[in-house]
Structures are given as C-alpha cells and as structure tokens.
Specification:
Helix content: 55-70%
Strand order of the largest sheet: 2-1-3-4-5-6
CATH topology of the largest domain: Rossmann fold
Shape: globular
C-alpha cells in the first residue's frame, strides 16, 4: 500500500480525495492535516510515501510546506493538489522539489495515477500543467541557448547515464527503467542519483526538463 499524507484546509475536500484514493485499492491515507505547518509535523512523524498538499492554506502555505518536507523528510515524495495552476505556482513547486502537480478539477484517475507515479519515483503533471511547462520551454526567448546548454550538460554523462536520463524524461519510474534496461532496481536508483548529481538538479522533474531541452524526448 502507498502511504499518503493528505493536506487541505477544507474537511470536505479531504473526504472527497480520501474516497477517490480508496477506490484505487492501493493507497492508505495515514494522516490528514488542515494547514501547512501541521503537514510538516505529520510528515516527520509518519514518514509517508507521498505528501499530497493544497497550495493556499493557513499558518504555512503548501508551497513552503512542500519545500520543508523535501528538505527534512527525504523519503517522502511531494505532490501538489490544487485548484491553482498559475505558472508561478508550478515553477515554485517543481523548483522546490515537488515531483507531482495535480489539479482538483482533473479526472479522478489522474489523482490515482499521479500518487502512484510519484510514490514509484517518477514524476506526474496534470495535462494542463504539463502544457504550461512545455510552453515555457518552447518560448523563443533564449531557447537556442537553453538547448545548447542542456546538450553540453548531457554530453558530460556516460552512455548509460544518458540512457537512464532519456527514460526519466519519458516519465518512467525506477522499476520501469530497470525492466527496460534489464537492470536491478537498486542499480537504476544509483544511476538516477548520479545523473541528478552530475546535472546539478534536485529531482526527476528538473532532470526531465534538461532531457527535453537537450532533445532527448518528445
């Protein structure tokens, strides 16, 4: 079972999300919080697989809480679940270490799939959010420079590390990469960690951006 910390300042919203997750049959909500500060405390206490956070909450907003959880509870993946899809929120969330960004207006399947993906070490963005990210990368200003810089960074990787990066960019989880490359999962984890370190990025989403800019994925 995937252990989830659910955080939203509206009890009715938490009840709805809990019901959707339960319908998938593979998640267990181990704790619920009504604000960001409580979310950080419960993440430290329960060490869930996934912390699912709303953005606008009292005491400490979800973006700040996400950064704190990423920093202090490294075994917990963080995903945002919100009605707010402004690019500034998306950029800060992903820059702060979140590997999922889901919209409450999305299909319930997206929620289940997103939690499963981030729990498995992959990244997941709701389609509308992914469109924002792609549009931002595709802007004409500085695009050629970013592409050249990304290709130069990727060139420093070993052939196997580049192969792993391409699969991370395609959204595959560690088990899926292991199956594709006929490696054990522990070896894949080591490769992913090495890739993140050598690229100087904090998480798989940022690595996927480098892979995209380098032309490694569509």
């Amino acid at each position: 079972m995937i252990r989830v910390l659910l955080t939203d300042d509206e009890a009715m919203v938490r009840a709805g999300v809990r019901a959707i997750l339960a319908s998938g049959g593979e998640t267990e909500v181990v704790a619920e919080a009504g604000d960001g500060r409580e979310a950080v405390e419960l993440a430290r206490a329960h060490r869930p697989d996934v912390a699912l956070l709303d953005i606008r909450m009292p005491r400490l907003d979800g973006l700040a809480a996400a950064e704190e959880i990423v920093r202090t509870v490294p075994g917990t993946a963080v995903a945002m679940l919100t009605t707010f899809s402004e690019q500034a929120y998306v950029a800060r969330a992903l820059g702060g270490g979140a590997t999922g960004f889901l919209l409450k207006s999305g299909d319930p399947y997206e929620l289940i799939a997103g939690v499963r993906a981030v729990a498995g070490g992959a990244a997941f963005l709701s389609p509308k959010v992914a469109r924002y990210v792609i549009d931002g990368l595709g802007g004409s200003d500085g695009r050629l420079g970013r592409e050249a810089a990304a290709r130069a960074r990727v060139a420093e990787l070993s052939p196997r590390e580049r192969e792993v990066l391409g699969l991370v960019g395609a959204g595959l989880s560690n088990p899926e990469i292991a199956a594709r490359l006929h490696l054990v999962e522990g070896t894949v984890k080591a490769y992913v960690s090495a890739v993140l370190d050598r690229l100087g990025v904090r998480n798989r989403v940022q690595a996927a951006v480098v892979a995209y800019e380098a032309g490694m994925v569509e």
